[in-house]
Amino acid sequence: MASSFLSSGIIQPLPLRSPDKPQTLFDHLKTTSTFLGSTSKLRSVSLSKPNLPNPHRRSTVVAVSDVLKEKKTKSAASSSQLLITREEGLELYEDMVLGRAFEDMCAQMYYRGKMFGFVHLYNGQEAVSTGFIKLLKKEDCVVSTYRDHVHALSKGVPARAVMSELFGKATGCCRGQGHSGCHRAAFTSKYKREVLKEDCDEVTLAFFGDGTCNNGQFFECLNMASLWKLPIVFVVENNLWAIGMSHLRATSDPEIWKKGPAFGMPGFHVDGMDVLKVREVAKEAIQRARRGEGPTLVECETYRFRGHSLADPDELRDPAEKAHYAARDPITALKKYIFDNKLASEAELKAIEKKIDEVVEESVEFADASPPPPRSQLLENVFADPKGFGIGPDGSYRCEDPKFTEGTADV
Hints:
By secondary structure, the chain is of the alpha/beta class. Helix content is about 35%, strand content about 10%. It has 15 helices and nine strands. The strands form three sheets. A five-stranded parallel β-sheet has the order 3-4-5-9-8.
């Protein structure tokens, strides 16, 4: 299982512990952790027993390191040794600029009263969405969270459809009703391949944040996905904060990627502010799932440039921490790579930015002019049989019957 990863040169096994030299649980963590704050503050626990193999664990599974190594090149000028082609570079840049511009416009529309409720923006995390989703096929699935606008854009949902959805309009991608992804996508792919014997290599990406990783359901999902060798990649967008709770204060071990090998799957840690590094890890994990080799856990250390939501004044995070990550803007980093390797000119990137501005402006005009959902749509997707409960035979809503609230209505 792990051999394809090891041969890629991207990750390395953890060093084996000598039986004659006692170590602490955090010896390796102290030397490799890249998280803000010092892991040396963690309590050390001595291990007196040698690291003997577990006869019940599959021998093909090994723990892997947490750092994506740079690809070694003899000459940066050689196009054959570049991490991306010109076409790929322009595609990545356009997708990331679209995500940033769209979210900035969402902030404007929220403060103008065009959007309601909580709006969670993705600014700063674009390298993760673009690095993973732009490698997918049309048939592949993405399971997202509430911070999902940019995931939808990267997967190809038109900006006007996403904006209309946020406006609560009938022309939105979910007809103004809102929608969450469905986890059965990975099971469907496995069923097609193994039961129906179809030539199916569909993959599912499941995105979630660091706050999810201390919940029991997270561990249950890792266990079942590994047990059934599901074609799924678990992508942790670790932006270091779960609403107002620092990741370092919420978990006993801040390195989430280590939980993968514990359930029999490889684990990665990658710089989520670098789209090219994310893309290299994503290639390995997605290809592994397509080959039927099971799930992978990838932890992308990233950062959101805004508060948890637009209702969050963002007063809890240290200004120095925010400045540190702002200086590592993933879009700026990609632009520099493109210029340094002469993949495109400044005029070409300016043309992309102008095109994106027009797309986003048009999405707002379209959403603003679109009609709200009809009243008849109110109870759709609420009851299994809306006409048998929510809507009467004459088409009127049963809840409008005074007897309904008295508990005497014939339902």
